[in-house]
Amino acid sequence: MKKFGQMFLVGLAMVFGLGLVAGNVQPPVASAAGTEYYVATSGSDSNAGTNDAPWKTLQHAADVAPAGSTVYVRGGVYKQKVKITRSGSASQGPIVFTNYGTETAIIDGSGLSVSGNEGLIELADVNYVTVQGFEIRNFTTASKNVVPVGIYVHGSGGFINLSNNKIHDIENTVTPTGKDRLGRDAHGIAVYGTKAPASIHDLTISGNELYNLVLGSSESLVLNGNVDGFAVTDNRIHDNDNIGIDLIGFEGTAPNTAYDQARNGLVKGNRVYNNSVQNNPSYKSDDNSAGGIYVDGGKDSIIEQNYSYNNDIGVEMASEHAGKATSSITVRSNVIYNNRLTGIAMGGYNEERGSTVNCKIVNNTLYKNDTFDDGSGQLLVQYDTRNNVIKNNIFVASSTDMLISNGYTKNSGNVVDYNLYFAPSGSSEANWIWKNKEYTGFSAYKSGTGNDTHSLFADPKFVNAANSDFHLQSSSPAIDAGNTDRAIIGTLDIDGKPRVQGAAVNIGAYE
């Protein structure tokens, strides 16, 4: 009876617009879709939510704002968490949470506790919600097995847009213990599809900046589990102590293994740099495993027009789970340089891991990766790689002169051709390892492996590599020397110019 009475009072409040808050009775739903509401540090949740009489908490706004409305958050520091569980709709439009004008709205976790996996901003099972324009910071813990997240999306749902947010200083600082060094985790943005068959879909993550994140064994921006259809575009992800962007499968995030893979996505136009586990106590001191962009068990996605540099690994396509494959990933028109271990890595990192199959590495420019000088080269081909295509790439070796390093013999059906290679010591001293056999010299490598029949060894003649300008001079041998297979090369280069101009295609990221 008491519960029924509360619902009846709320119904009256909704009908007559009463500002009714008594006992356990929740405040009324705001009046109409398309309305603008306001939150300010000087406000009160008993106000009307107008610009002149704003609300005080984001949680109140999230609890009452209807589909199609916009919640403007005025400038100031909000030491609050907010959990969004209300949805917009296709007919009325999304619920939009945004900063007001040019004002800086800061969601600050200083002094707030972290419970389980928890977001400073959290979206649970929602559709048609936009979160944009916030600074999100200082959500930290020193406790094991709890995970602070800047923005955390989970469950199922779709048409979610996370744009133009600045997320930093999300941290787990616990000292890891035990042989596995686990339990120290955090994320800047985390999307976990935890249901099946219902997925998280039609997801946009664009224009955000993520930095100064203390992640332990986790990732800056991660899509994990049943996430089907997404665009991760034009983000800046830098100076974090682990992976930049990660597309994950096979971790048991979704309850049905048939749906437990991030898939059908686009990772485009991002700038990912200075992400490394070098000072991360969750890893050994000689570890170099933080990928700028990592696909660990994801499938059917495109990674293009990104810059990845000064990370441990530029781009990695691998599977950490035995018997499982990262599959049908296209990595094209990216510039990848000065990464510590290697430029692009593929395959399982040892014989107890999974595989990389049916992937395409096309029209990328890789320059002097392997700065750690351990001989991993520009392309690291690891355990169990099958039916992958590696074409139209520029590979410029570091001081090790190693171009491709493949220390495993489980390597079948991989096609390597129409690439341009260059190394400091020249063609006769350049090194390749293929199926665990080392070749010195370009001619010896080609004849010994059957790879790269149409490939070149030549100075690519970049405009100004010292200043990271990898456009091609007009005399570059990479011009018009690539394979023109339209099924794999895409339509645009890294600058957004047409990939096919006339009948020819350049080797490398720039047309």
From TrEMBL:
The reply on keyword Nucleotidyltransferase is no
* Signal peptide annotation: 1-32
Taxonomic classification = Bacteria, Bacillati, Bacillota, Bacilli, Bacillales
Record localization: Secreted
Which species is listed as the source?
Paenibacillus peoriae
Among InterPro entries, the record links this protein to: Beta_helix, Choice_anch_Q_dom, PbH1, Pectin_lyas_fold, Pectin_lyase_fold/virulence, Polysaccharide_Lyase_9
Keywords, in A-Z order = Secreted, Signal
Q: What is this protein called?
A: Right handed beta helix domain-containing protein
| Chain ranges of the Right handed beta helix domain | 150-365
**Where mainly found?**
secreted
Asked if the record carries the keyword tRNA processing, the reply is: no
